[in-house]
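Incident log, support desk, overnight shift.

02:14 A customer reports that sequence design results differ from what the structure should imply. Their input is reproduced verbatim below. On-call engineer (initials T.W.) acknowledged and began investigating.
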């Protein structure tokens, strides 16, 4: 059983993913894997060809600000970059599934719907949170202005749309218990696997 775990920026996907890890699920952190993929030789060459050497600050760091500035308003460039990164992450995910056969696998990914990866999951879990809470979290975490966070939120599929496509919704709103909600989802996934 593979469940896709997603949610808008600042919703708390990673926190929920860690809860599923505690329950014994194998969690594949797509965004972390994608960050590492940038440094694998064939990918690095393609990224440099597409965006220039400035995309890399060093052997271990990409220039996020530079890359964002190049792709933010250029959907063609964004699609080209995604066509380099997403297949490479997909291969890692297939290997991860083989390695963790028999376990419930949670694929944590910010852009599950935007990258059209729903087919890779048997069930979809969306982590939802109020915009105010998401903005506050991201401002604190990434040291961004409110306007910068709002732009990031607007660049993603609206939360309401994600909720409509979900099999399960976990509300990370600091009102309902996260662990109780995640446990209920975990029990359902166990029953269906």
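02:41 Re-run completed on a clean worker. Output:
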């Amino acid at each position: 059983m593979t469940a896709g775990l997603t949610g808008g920026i600042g919703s708390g996907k990673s926190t929920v993913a860690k809860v599923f890890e505690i329950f014994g699920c194998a969690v594949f952190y797509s965004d972390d894997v994608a960050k590492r993929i940038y440094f694998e030789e064939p990918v690095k060459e393609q990224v440099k060809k597409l965006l220039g050497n400035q995309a890399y600050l060093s052997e271990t760091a990409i220039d996020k600000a530079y890359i964002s500035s190049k792709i933010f308003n250029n959907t063609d460039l964004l699609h080209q970059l995604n066509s380099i990164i997403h297949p490479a992450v997909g291969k890692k995910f297939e290997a991860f599934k083989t390695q963790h056969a028999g376990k419930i696998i949670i694929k944590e990914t910010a852009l599950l719907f935007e990258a059209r990866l729903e087919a890779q999951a048997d069930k979809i879990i969306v982590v939802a949170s109020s915009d105010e809470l998401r903005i506050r979290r991201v401002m604190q975490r990434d040291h961004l202005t409110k306007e910068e966070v709002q732009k990031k939120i607007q660049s993603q599929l609206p939360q309401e749309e994600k909720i409509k496509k979900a099999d399960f919704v976990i509300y990370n709103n600091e009102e309902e218990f996260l662990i109780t909600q995640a446990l209920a989802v975990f029990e359902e996934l166990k029953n269906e696997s």
